[in-house]
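cron nightly-structures :: item 1 of 1
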Amino acid sequence: MKETKIQWHSAFVSAMDLDFEENRVDLTFEKEYNLNTKPLEIDLLIVKKEASVQIASEIGKLFKGHNIMEYKSPEDHLDIDTFYKTLAYACLYKSYGKTVDGIKAEDITTSILREAKPIELFHYFEEHGCKVTQAYGGIYYVAGKTWFPTQIVVTGELDQDAHIWLKGLSRNLEKGDLRRMMDERNHLIEKADRELADSVLEVSISANRKIVEELIGDESMYEALMEIMEPKIKQREDAIIKKGIQGTVDTLRDFGHKDAEIKTAIIKRYNLSLEEAEDYIRNK
């Protein structure tokens, strides 16, 4: 069976939202921020509402007013061209301010996040006079040949307790990692936070099928996993059914059947209500 494409970037945005939970009211999150026209698109733009706000998460210690974040999934490369592309995004973002110099260069930061440390990129920095310093566990500041304060965040090196959701964006989780994520998710009080956690967990589950199969043998874990996955499974099944119904409607219409005949046919075949059938008929 072909593996469903894993939505790493969507889960990354959810993980960042949870990571910055303590400062959520102080920040504006704009995912897939368009720079003029696609494909010039920032993965995540985080804007501080007040300059004086201090960010609790270590990832946000570098932050200024406007913070461009580029996320690389485990399958993506992080090389010097990615580094310069991120800087270019920041330059374009600055140039698209509402007024001339409306966004100050000194009020912009760039962050690139990836699970594994980009060894070759760090070697490039060393060879070309860029200084890389480890500010916190898994967080490296880059100085020299960059127009903005820049950090490389190696999510695989982050502290598990402080950054559990970013750490969960991996193909190399262990059973204990997923158990901790599930426990953390169950302790979340707000419905919105649970939905964000479920977004990350859906990706973690899809990317770590082998250990998930092992956990399914645990009845309590099975129930917890199904609570997360069942809505997504039903969503996909509903989409398939709707596509099938609409295909039937289109085929019958191509063969010259009248709307009344088509309506009767799909009500009987798909056990639809009159209102549901009429919606499909109207969808010409």
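cron nightly-structures :: done
The mean pLDDT is 84.
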